[in-house]
Amino acid sequence: MSTRSGSGGDIRSIPGAAPGAPPARGRGPVVAALMLGMALAALDGTVVSTAVPQIVGDLGGFSVFSWLFSGYLLAVTVTLPVYGKLSDTFGRKPVLIAGIVLFLAGSVLCSLAWNMAALIAFRVFQGLGGGALQGTVQTVAADLYPLDERPKIQAKLSTVWAVSAVAGPALGGALASYADWRWIFLVNLPVGALALWLVGRYLVEPVRERPATAPRIDWAGALCVFATGALLLTALVQGGVAWPWLSAPSLGLFGASAALAALTVLVERRAAEPVIPGWVWRRRDIAAVNLAMGALGLLMVAPTVFLPTYAQSVLGLDPVAAGFVLSVMTLSWPVSAALSNRVYTRIGFRDSAAVGIGLASLILLAFPLLPFPGHAWQPALIMLALGGALGLFQLPLIIAVQSSVGWAERGTTTASVLFCRQVGQSVGAALFGAVANATITSRLAADPAAGLPDDLDSVSRALEHPAGLTADAADQLRRAVATAVDHVYVGAALAGVLALLVLLLLAPRRFPVREHEAEAG
Q1: If we measure between CA atoms, which residue out of 259, 86, 114, 94 comes closest to residue 182?
Q2: pTM
């Protein structure tokens, strides 16, 4: 199977469509199905988050409601590698159909939940389908389009996330206010049903020779990956929240996840067809992209987790306005991604991504320079610029790594990239959460004022009800939060520098790009 270097004019000259892809006029229904499937996953978190007060008011369980999101995240993250391998073994279509069915079944179960424990369990079940959706949609998109057309479909999928970021909170709030919170799950049914019909009717995969021996599923490896990821992400999500970092539960979970990780490596080395094959890390180009995407996950915690708190607590915005400050990033991201091919066709994949992450690091460092308390347009402008930089960083790397492998490895490769980003985001949430908590505690202890809370739990309550503070105490608390978020953004910039170093030191100057006609053979 022939390959060639992916830079400059080489990219432009690659002819033909991806193997088994329908002609351009026949791709429309499949693209619509992919966008609908992506919408299911993209809308999920934003719609549910706005209905949390109504859900807690009806079912109770305020102390554990965060697992509505953490449980779903766990299931999506740990199943990504499994679905990637399954799509390479059995094809994209059955995995995508199974993912949609699981997601819709989970949505129905969530709407029927009778208490918070049941809802959390059903969210985990729903996440089993979400993992198949996220990875397989990206893989099918790469199958459908040749290299020079791939930015078009990626820009469309990015637009789905942008629209979801804006429309999700409004939809969730409207359903929770004027109907019932259970409808936030039931609205998935018509969207998913249409996606399911389009996939079943129009997605046609290439006919390939059957292997001499039936493929063997590495169930032991899949179970080890799932258990390792579940324990590790539980430790990261709950550490510093449900229990102290150095407590017995945290140390026990980290120790158990390390032991399971070692067991996973042993199982995968002996497996005939491992879920996470060793070549994912032995190949320099794929390993570099995986590490860079892990750093991107770290970086993304700053705007997605801490910016809304900054906008509400420091700038005094209401939740809707705070959401819009963040959402401007999702407006520039797809535009930049759509135009990125004009950059990487000239200077190559690696250098395009390096320019993007270099700019992103500088933009993140500009955040601590904002005046206090400042105006909403100032962080919004930074987020607009950040989205443009990250669109130039992420898409060239995804296209490069998908184009460097054949059809039979593309699902595993895509899943490994998404898996690393998800793990990076979970690690970042724990790491930067600890940084923010330490900063706030230090600031309040160093410059006390009458009426200031004396512990982090009280800080959380004071941020929700600032009217109970004196003017001096409220100002001190706002300054402490602003400083904490500044430190988080500096940490995010360092994560960007880490990604830049990975690209410059590990990624090949020219990514190997496979000929589509050779793949079809």
Answers
A1: 114
A2: 0.77
